[in-house]
Design a protein that fits this description.
With 244 residues, the protein is α+β, with helices and mostly antiparallel strands. The protein has one domain (28-215): START domain (Alpha-D-Glucose-1,6-Bisphosphate, Chain A, domain 4), CATH 3.30.530.20. 29% of the residues lie in helices and 38% in strands. It has four helices and eleven strands, in the order H-E-E-E-E-H-H-E-E-E-E-E-E-E-H. The chain has helices spanning 20-35, 89-96, 99-105, 205-243, and strands at 46-48, 53-58, 61-70, 74-85, 109-118, 121-128, 136-148, 151-158, 169-171, 176-185, 188-196. Strands 1, 2, 3, 4, 5, 6, 7, 8, 9, 10 and 11 form an eleven-stranded mixed β-sheet that branches. Strand 3 (61-70) and strand 4 form a beta hairpin.
């Protein structure tokens, strides 16, 4: 018997009006999907072939890179983000599994749909705002939240057949994420995020990097800002309630 999560009735599709500059911006968001890497999953086996190197830092967010080898022939880079968040874990998780928040921080996404969640699992469908000149892309990812030695771990893995495929849209078949959230002091999270999509570069790397790296950091900044704003609003409401 097949079990399928119920689609969130609050799903919505934002308007898509792209000017020329944004069209190229959202095209490079696809490069983001093809550029990331992580070594903490069993689904895709690979080995590091270089040391970590810091390639960019902005407002406390560090972007690191190293080369990895998938199988015998696919050499690609593993990217990792390290940052700090002044919020609780629940505030960040809320931004990862709420459509309205996903729309705000996922750079280049045309539509995010949440297919419910059961316990500590949820599924997100994302389609990308790609110019018609290029192949259209989408992805389906299942998230799982677990606790591990004082940390909150979120693992995510592509599940391409969970949502019916859309004609003439290429679906990302292999994709994995890993979030490591450590509350090192009250209302302060140390975040480590990484992911992998075993695909070859769409463009030469020296061109791709000029667009991809700033967009990646912008997305993480947006996510952190949303989590911190939600935490501040919760604390404000709590203090108002206590004064009554």
């Amino acid at each position: 018997m097949k079990f399928r999560l119920k689609k969130n009735s609050g799903a919505r599709e934002p308007d898509v009006v792209l000017n020329l500059s944004r069209k190229f911006g959202v095209f490079f968001c696809l490069c983001i999907l093809l550029a990331l890497g992580n070594s903490l999953f069993a689904q895709m086996e690979f080995k590091p072939v270089s040391e970590w190197k810091k390639i960019r830092e902005s407002e406390g967010i560090r972007l690191l890179s190293r080369w990895i080898l998938i199988g015998d022939s696919l050499k690609t880079r593993q990217l990792r983000f390290v940052g700090e968040i002044n919020a609780e874990v629940e505030d960040l998780v809320y931004c990862l599994r709420t459509e309205e928040e996903l729309d705000k921080w996922k750079t280049g996404a045309r539509k995010n749909q949440l297919y419910g969640y059961s316990g500590n699992e949820w599924v997100v469908y994302t389609s990308f705002g790609v110019p018609k000149l290029f192949s259209q892309q989408d992805i389906v990812v299942r998230y799982r939240l677990v606790g591990s030695e004082g940390k909150t771990i979120i693992t995510a893995r592509s599940e391409p057949d969970f949502v019916p495929r859309v004609p003439e849209v290429n679906r990302q078949e292999k994709y994995e994420e890993h979030w490591e959230l450590a509350l090192d002091r009250p209302s302060h999270i140390r975040m480590v995020f990484s992911s992998i999509a075993p695909s070859r570069p769409v463009l030469p790397r020296f061109i791709q990097d000029r667009f991809v790296h700033p967009m990646l950091i912008r997305s993480i900044k947006n996510l952190i800002r949303l989590a911190e704003n939600r935490f501040a609003e919760r604390m404000k409401n709590y203090c108002s309630y206590e004064r009554k």
